Amino acid sequence: MRLKPMRECLPSKEREEYVSRVRERGITFVTERQVNRYIDEFLRFRASRGRTSLTDLGSRDLLAYAGHLERSNRTFVTARIKLAVALQWCRWLFEVGRLETDVTEGISASGALSRMRQRF
């Protein structure tokens, strides 16, 4: 069985460190690749809006990303997983002291995608 090569991700030591930490918890290679890709997609979304520094990461970024996922994904489940990974990564950034505030507070993947959920 041939695996797809990993695509080039935006440089992010925080993403790499997080993926390393979840790898230590015993996730599969496929899950590791998915987590890596979904965080990269969130970083690319932020970069497309001119936001490349973690110092300006806020809950508005997560809610804007939820709106983007609602418009660009066909299924609620895929959008929810992508947002959940971004939320978990942001929560981890706060827990390890890389963010001063918990930008995920009060946000859930299902709640932020409520318009999309109502369609299904």
Describe the protein's topology.
Layout: H1 13-24, H2 29-48, H3 59-72, H4 76-95, H5 109-112, H6 114-119
Helix pairs in contact: 1-2, 2-4, 3-4
Might you state the CATH topology name?
DNA polymerase, domain 1
Indicate the structural class. Answer: mainly alpha
Average pLDDT over all residues:
88
The structural domain count equals 1
Poorly predicted parts: none
Largest sheet: none
Q: Radius of gyration, rounded?
A: 14 Å
Question: How would you concisely characterize the structure shown here?
Answer:
The chain is an all-alpha fold.
Please characterize this protein's 3D structure:
- By secondary structure, the protein is mostly helical.
- The protein has a single domain (13-50, 57-119), classed as Orthogonal Bundle (DNA polymerase, domain 1), CATH 1.10.150.
- It contains 6 helices and no strands.
- It starts with 12 loop residues before the first helix and ends with a helix.
- 27% of the residues are buried.
What are the key terms here?
120 residues; mainly alpha; DNA polymerase, domain 1; 6 helices
